[in-house]
Specification:
This protein is of the alpha+beta class and 113 residues long. It has a single domain, classed as SH3 type barrels (Roll), CATH 2.30.30. Helix content is 20%, strand content 27%. It is built from one helix and five strands, in the order βββββα. Strand 2 and strand 3 form a beta hairpin. The longest helix has 23 residues. It is elongated and about 60 Å long. It starts with 21 loop residues before the first strand and ends in an 11-residue tail after the last helix. The N terminus is likely disordered. It holds the Pfam family DUF3006. This is DUF3006 family protein. InterPro entries: DUF3006.
Amino acid sequence: MARRNFLNVKGNTNNPYNYIIKKSPVHGGMGVKAIVERMGGEYAVVLLGQEQYKIILPLSYLPEEIRERDVLDIDININRKLTLQRLQRQSHRLKEKVKRARGEKVLQAPSQS
């Protein structure tokens, strides 16, 4: 599925169910509008983006004063540093598995505290 950018979605601006999804000029990420559809227990059902995908979020991820029908601004960015660290750990683990499969001795990496 191709990634689309919704720029300047037009419609009734008084209707909170009109969304604008745009690229963030600062981070290169993407900003998404969402609406809190309902809340119950420890979770909230949120309608995400123009397509109104339903997602369930823990209330602990949302502001304390959140209420049903609130409009949320969600900024989505890629953390390149953590992504690279994760890929390096996976690569290291894979190399260790190959060494074990070949019967080679594997040195233990120091624990990260």
